[in-house]
């Protein structure tokens, strides 16, 4: 039945070439851990993506309860972690995933660095990778404020103070992030918007570029 | 024409004529330069990846179930005792700002120059390291720079965390999320509903024994000018609240602070005697302050 449904759609939209473009390629021996165990280092990028997907999904569930205002933010996180069925799992996955994604991304970067895979013709993909790195750190920084407990509040206060010490543009960065005189209601809504709309959108665009380039260039050869 | 096509015939839409009709597929990378046991991505390799993914997911879930995500008490901007700490992967940057040539007048070195150069250098590494050599042990300069950076980051992260732990021990502070978790566990053990502190009402410490003779002395003494009639202090100017001070200081400690001052607080004894208070009054005052316990 699925086959005839697929055929029905394919007949109209000719979708086969689209996914075939993505799917049809071989995995060479030197990156396949089934043949050389040490090739597990080539899995780090894929695992980073896997955890990124977990982050996006668990984050979507978190926003079903989370309320980005200074009165309710803490209370909603508290409610989610202690009263909602499986809420503690959803929040736990997002919390630990945020650290793991940084770890995996770091390992992936080191793999690419030490195998010299950033060299011609893959320079552009390395630069895109570094931008992804920056976006990920931004997601970590903005997400840290959202539970609105003391740890979140004071870390953000210090973070913004450090950003404000940048010469020339420091004050503008501060205004942009903080929104008002102190870290407060406006800061929280801004961080929320940046964390769930702006940065994920940028991240997805960059990832699309990253994957397109990998598919186009293939994985780098053996050392 | 689409309306008189034979059944089963495929219609191909050309669409906007400015878009070239795609005739060529994205090409298969050619791995003949390094032949070996390559295998198809779909389904062979993807299935193996799937299995690895499942194992990783189980690992993450085990972590999540054994260590719930921490949550402290609601943010209280007037809290002056809280030690700010960023998430662990920012610790090395945070620690880096604590050295003489990366703080105060030189803070630009710490916030912009060094991290900026490092990030820029890393970003542009494909354009700096131009040799075709890929093996790391044949690229000693590039590899050494990275290894030194990694060691420095490791050291800074460790030092930052170590200092934080020391400070907690020294000031006898239990991190709030740990305290909160213990509270929740205790409430559960006692069969009570989990307490949920809501913002604003965050652990307000009440004044103890406002009718004590010491309270009257406090209003007459110099203290009130800084610490305030309600003992709330002025957190924004670095003057701590004295509510709950009895938790950490004894009567003798407080007498000592009155006589000798502390940190930014000048000694107060002479001024108060000058204001007409007696030693007995000051004794009452210290006694009352030591009664200010949060529980
Ligand atoms: C969300 C973060 C990222 C994801 C999901 C991701 C994903 C991937 C994947 C799946 C691959 C295929 C090879 C492999 O798995 O090792 C790859 C290759 C690559 N990545 Fe990433 N990556 C991320 C971040 C980065 C970063 C931060 C950099 C470096 C600055 C980077 C640079 C590269 C380069 C240059 C390649 C090509 C390597 C080669 O052909 O051998 N990526 N990436």
How would you portray this structure in words?
The complex is a heterodimer of chains A (223) and B (295). Chain A has 223 residues and is mainly alpha-helical. Chain A is built from nine helices and one strand; from the N terminus they run ααβααααααα. Chain A has a single domain (40-217), classed as Up-down Bundle (Cytochrome Bc1 Complex, Chain C), CATH 1.20.810.10. The model of chain A has no long low-confidence stretch (mean pLDDT 93). Chain B starts with 38 loop residues before the first strand and ends in a 5-residue tail after the last helix. Chain B is 47% helix and 1% strand. Chain B has helices spanning 41-66, 91-96, 107-123, 125-128, 140-171, 176-189, 213-220, 223-227, 251-260, 269-274, 279-290, and one strand at 39-40. Chain B has 295 residues and is mainly alpha-helical. The chains are: A mainly alpha (223), B mainly alpha (295). Chains A and B meet through helix 2, strand 1, helix 3, helix 4 and helix 5 of A and strand 1, helix 1, helix 3, helix 4 and helix 6 of B. Strand 1 (26-27) of chain A pairs antiparallel with strand 1 (39-40) of chain B, so a sheet runs across the interface. The complex binds protoporphyrin IX containing FE. Residues 42, 44-46, 48-49, 52, 105, 108-109, 111-112, 117-118, 122, 125-126, 129-130, 132-133, 207, 210, 214, 219-220 of chain A line the site of protoporphyrin IX containing FE. Chain A: InterPro entries: Cyt_b/b6_N, Cytb/b6-like_sf, Di-haem_cyt_TM. Chain A: It comes from Gordoniibacillus kamchatkensis.
């Amino acid at each position: 039945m699925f086959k005839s449904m697929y055929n029905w759609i394919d007949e109209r939209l000719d979708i086969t070439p689209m996914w075939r473009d993505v799917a049809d390629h071989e995995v060479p021996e030197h990156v396949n851990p089934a043949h050389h165990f040490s090739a597990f280092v080539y899995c780090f990028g894929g695992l980073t993506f896997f955890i990124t997907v977990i982050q996006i999904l668990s984050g979507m569930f978190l926003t079903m309860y989370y309320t980005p205002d200074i009165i309710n933010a803490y209370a909603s996180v508290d409610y989610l972690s202690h009263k909602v069925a499986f809420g503690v799992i959803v929040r736990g996955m997002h919390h630990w995933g945020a650290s793991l994604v940084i770890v995996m991304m770091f390992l992936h970067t080191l793999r690419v660095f030490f195998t010299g895979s950033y060299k011609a013709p893959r320079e552009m993909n390395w630069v895109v990778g570094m931008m992804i790195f920056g976006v990920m750190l931004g997601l970590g920084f903005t997400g840290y404020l959202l539970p609105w407990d003391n740890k979140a509040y004071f870390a953000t206060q210090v973070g913004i103070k450090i950003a404000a010490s940048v010469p020339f543009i420091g004050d503008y960065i501060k205004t942009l992030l903080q929104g008002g005189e102190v870290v407060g209601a406006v800061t929280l809504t801004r961080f929320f918007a940046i964390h769930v709309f702006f940065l994920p959108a940028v991240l997805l665009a960059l990832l699309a570029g990253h994957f397109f380039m990998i598919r186009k260039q293939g994985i780098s050869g053996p050392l | 024409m689409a309306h008189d096509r034979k059944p089963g015939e495929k219609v191909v839409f050309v669409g906007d004529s400015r878009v070239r009709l795609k005739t060529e597929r994205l090409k298969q990378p050619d791995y003949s330069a390094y032949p070996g046991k390559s295998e198809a991505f779909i389904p062979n390799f993807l299935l193996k990846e799937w299995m690895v993914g499942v194992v990783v997911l189980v690992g993450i879930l085990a972590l999540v179930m054994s260590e719930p995500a921490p949550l402290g008490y609601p943010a209280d901007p007037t809290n002056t005792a809280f030690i700010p700490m960023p998430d662990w992967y920012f610790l090395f940057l945070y620690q880096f700002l604590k050295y003489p040539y990366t703080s105060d007048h030189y803070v630009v070195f710490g916030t912009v120059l060094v991290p900026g150069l490092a990030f820029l250098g890393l970003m542009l590494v494909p354009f700096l390291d131009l040799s075709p050599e890929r093996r790391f042990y044949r690229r000693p300069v590039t590899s050494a720079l990275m290894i030194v950076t990694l060691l420095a980051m490791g050291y800074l992260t460790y030092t930052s965390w170590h200092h934080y732990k020391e400070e907690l021990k020294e000031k006898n502070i239990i991190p709030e999320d740990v305290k909160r978790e213990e509270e929740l566990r205790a409430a559960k053990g006692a069969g009570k509903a989990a307490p949920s502190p809501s913002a604003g009402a965050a652990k307000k410490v009440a004044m103890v024994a406002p009718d004590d003779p010491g309270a009257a002395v406090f209003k007459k003494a110099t203290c009130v000018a800084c610490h305030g009639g309600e003992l709330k202090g002025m957190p924004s100017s670095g003057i701590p609240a004295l509510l709950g001070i009895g938790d950490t200081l004894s009567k003798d400690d407080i007498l000592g602070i009155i006589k000798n001052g502390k940190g930014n607080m000048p000694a107060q004894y002479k001024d108060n005697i000058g204001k007409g208070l007696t030693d007995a009054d000051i004794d009452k005052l210290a006694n009352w302050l030591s009664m200010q316990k949060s529980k």
